[in-house]
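Justification of computing resources. Each target in the renewal requires a structure prediction run like the one illustrated here; the chain below, 427 residues long, is used simply to show the kind of job we budget for.
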Amino acid sequence: MTQRELLCRFAQCKTWKTDLTPMGALAKKLGDPQDKLRFVHVAGTNGKGSTCAMTSSILQEAGYRTGRFVSPYILDFRERIELDGEMIPEADLCRIGEQVLAAVDALEKEGLFPTEFDVVTMVGLLWFWEQRCDVVVLEVGVGGRIDSTNLILPGSVEVSVITSIALDHMAILGDTLSQIAREKSGILKENGTVVLGSAIPEEARSVILSEAARKNNRVVKPSAVRLLESCPDHLRFTDGKTTYTLPMAGCYQLENASTVLAVIDVLREKGWKITQEAVQRGFASTRFPARMELLGKRPLFWLDGAHNPEGAKLLSTSLQTLTKGKKTICLTGMMGDKNCEAVVAQLSPYIDAAITVQPGNPRAMSAKALSSLWQEQHVPAEPWDDLPGAVGRSIDLAGPDGAVICCGSLFLCADVRPLAMAFFKEK
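Resulting structure tokens:
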């Protein structure tokens, strides 16, 4: 079975569930690999992917065999399952994927139906166990309480992390911060330790603290870090003792970095050997596509995965400094089930013109409808049907001394990335 055929089979599985029973049955049928691994378990509305990237890079630099499981991917499905920064080989993905699907077929005959994300998560867990990982940095898919990753046992979790809480996936998680916080705090384990991001709103924080008390969790709050330098392709910051360089633009990454430093402190307390030099090297070697990723310099051209109001708010803080005095074009496409009006409203003060497209997804908003939202914010906007043409138009509008920010959907970033890279390579 090829990778493409395998992913088609994955997609034929259920898409949502009400509990972890099918996932538990699937794991049991495959030997419960999750019980033989150690985890850093990361949930949150925004920032969890970057937090996972930084944490896994530091652990790798410290000499640990480090697995990383994230979602979604940008260019290749195998980005979701990595070991020491290298994607799972296609042969291993197909071999283990077929093994998992065989177990799914058997369970369906018993009346149990694992979801697509159950299957993907189980492929990752089996491979990490097979590769004898020392630690796995495990990103929650959606929510936490009944997320497939939450099958892991309390004794396997070194530290739980909740990076942020904001309104997103409301049809699934609830339409208030309290409801969403309740779902995400479901990852907390009895007698565990949880690191909470510094920017969690009080309404959500109180729910998480209540759950932490109920489960006898130690709560760790990150210490502030201070920005030293913000450049188009990197940040320099300090925790007051050490200076770090992070090859990711976007001042919002400082909050994620402070969370990561707290995670590392917890791991050290638990006996993990992580030197300060490993932390510095880990930050400096972090790579994560479509998080204020700079693809070109004339004009400045960034990809960013911001797709909800909180993400747009964080992105706008970076644009205030990085694009100040520059003509700034937003190349954007969004899913229709997101709060598109609020995203546009957050970004519009920092955007001179918008180029809108419709990402290749059934949930996508039309380019014309999205352009109307920009125009309502008094930002000139052009809808485009042709994505390569839209990329070229945004670059032409910005001019060599301007800036382009592509955002609104990771589906869009995945399609734009190779086009933009090809354009700047030719230059």
